[in-house]
Amino acid sequence: MAETHLTMSQPMSKVPEKLDEQQTDIANGDFDSENEALRRHLSPRQVQFFAIGGSIGTALFISIGFGLLHGGAGSLLLAFIIQGIMMTFVTTNAIAEMTIFMPVSAAFIQHGGAWVDQAWGFMLGWNFFVFEAFLPAFEITAVDLVLTFWRDDIPSAAVITVRIATYGLTNAFGVKYFGEAEFWLSGGKLILILLLYCFTFVTMCGGNPQKDAYGFRNRTKPEPFLEYLSTGTSGRFQGFLAALWQANFIIVGPEYLATCAGEVQRPRTSLKTAFRSVYVRFVLFFILDAICVGIVLSARDPTLVKVLGSGETGTSASSVYVIAMRNMGVDALPHAVNALVLTSIYSAGDCYKFTAIRSLYALAQ
């Protein structure tokens, strides 16, 4: 039987021939993977939730406050729209087309080696692997910091050890167990996001202990485009760039779908549906979140300035929503938000570890 998986060593002139050999049933979305070491055990249900929530971590709920503080609500929203358009309509479309055409593990890494140059694939693979390999450490320490929301005497060593062990467990067994874990953890992210959106809508209409129907007042107070580092037009532009920097860190994701392409059942149909959901995620999660953040809290809120200026950026106390809840006198909701943020952090770290492993596997092909 002809070799059916794409390797870095295949010359570009032979790639189309190999691709045709691998295709078995386009109508049903099947893809011949008989000779591949990985098995296609990720169901369409798991892939869909992986596409929706796999890349959403602490940044969307906590780090976004920096963009609001430095640029203002207007700059934050504009930065998210620009970055979202670039990521969604440029990066996602390019990755989706190649991945659906050739759904192999860590697809974009192998595609770079086969269709551009082997040196390009080598550089791309190691760059992505190193980046993803270091990110779980960020999420592991974030859990320890978030737990300080309740108490300060929690042993950090125990928390970090448990996190490392659980990451190892979810990635040590078959990919279907990883997919099932991410399905439920991504569901927790969706609940958290919907909870925050409901909080924003209800409180802006006056449903808060202060009975203050503040509406869109915070978006224009003091002004939507703030000065940063300098004054005047130059300062506002630098404020926008600071917000755009945060947007670049927060809005990511299509590459994670490409990473698991070699383990998806009926990849030609499942991946097509999953990539289409990226457009919905862009609007419902990132754009709406940028709008809500500017609604619930002023960019010059004293607590926001104090917390972010003191370096407490890794705790949920620095979350724009938690600060807004405390300002309004809402006592119970911050605890629920903090608990759901913990699940979000774990899910993001688990995804980073998975993609790092698959990237290294692709480099070894």
TrEMBL record:
Biased composition (Polar residues): 1-12
Gene Ontology MF: a single term: amino acid transmembrane transporter activity
Subcellular location: Membrane
Transmembrane segments annotated in the record for this chain: 49-69, 76-96, 128-150, 157-178, 190-209, 278-297
GO cellular component: membrane
Region (Disordered): 1-20
Name of protein: Amino acid permease/ SLC12A domain-containing protein
